[in-house]
Amino acid sequence: MPTETAAPARHTAFEDAQGLLAGTLLCAFALRMLTSMGLVTGQTAGLGVIGSYLLGLPFGLVFFVVNLPFYWLGYRRMGARFTLKTFACVALLSVFSFVMTPLVSFEVLNPWLGAVMFGLITGTGLLILFRHGGSLGGIGILALTLQESLGWRAGWVQLGFDAVLFAVAFALFSPLTVVQSLLGAVVLNLVIAINHRRDRYIAT
């Protein structure tokens, strides 16, 4: 006789709060590692990193401003709860990035190992944010909106954006720097692709 499966329990407000704090702190540390090596990454964070290099402004400030246009799309596509959590994540990452700069430095950090560790740490941080209903906004929201309105596959939209971003990076940085940056982006995307499975979640 089939048994009735209980619905998974939702995360409490406290669990969500610690999850968003932990996830953004991990991502901020990884981005500090990335920028200390002079590397770049993809998506909106990559746009913020390149913008900070070109403008000479703190990453946190550029990243926060770059994300502003995407909140309306997030509200329409994902609702108020997701948008508020995403705004909180972006704000926390921006603040943590300011705080990390004077507190964290690396005397020795091999760029190849640093790129891999950036991908692993950022991927872990993002997974925590996803599990608690947040994100770091930006291109992912735009990609989902275009998929819904125009039928464009979200994955291809994000891939196309990253292709343009890294093409710009090739014009601004040495080929070795861009290749090392690509390694970090590949590791990051593998962590998300392998572990971000909604059908395996226990709580949301």
Average pLDDT reading: 83
Number of strands: 0
Oligomer state of the chains in this structure: single chain
Proportion of strand residues? under 5%
Radius of gyration: 17 Å
The assigned structural class equals: mainly alpha
| Biggest sheet character | none
Shape: globular
Order of helices and strands: HHHHHHHHH
The helix fraction, in percent, is over 70%
Instruction: Please tally the helical runs, counting DSSP H or I stretches of 4 or more residues.
Output: 9
Number of domains as seen in the coordinates:
1
State the low-pLDDT regions, or none.
none
Q: How far is the N terminus from the C terminus?
A: 29 Å
Subcellular location: Cell membrane
Transmembrane segments: 20-41, 53-74, 86-106, 112-130, 178-195
Pfam families: YitT_membrane (PF02588)
Membrane topology: Multi-pass membrane protein
Describe it for me?
It is a multi-pass membrane protein. It is found in: Cell membrane. The structure is a single chain. This protein has 9 helices and no strands. The chain is mainly alpha-helical. The radius of gyration is 17 Å and the shape is globular. The chain starts with 12 loop residues before the first helix and ends in a 9-residue tail after the last helix.
